[in-house]
Amino acid sequence: MATLIAPTNHSPLEDAEAIRKAVKAGWGTDEKALITILGHRNASQRQQIRETYYELFQEDLIKRLESELSGDFERAMYRWMAEPSERYAILANVAIRHADKNYDVIVEIACALSPEELFIVRRAYHNRYHHSLEEDVSANTCGPLRQLLVGLVSSYRYDGNEINGKLAQCEADILHEAIKDKNSSKDEEVIRILTTRSKIQLVATFNRYKDDHGIAITKKLSDEGSDDFHKAMDIAIRCIQDHKKYYEKVLRNAMKGAGTNEDALTRVIVTRAEKDLNEIKEIYYKRNSVHLEHSVAKETSGDYKKFLLTLLGKED
Question: Which residues form a coiled coil (predicted)?
Answer without folding.
Answer: none
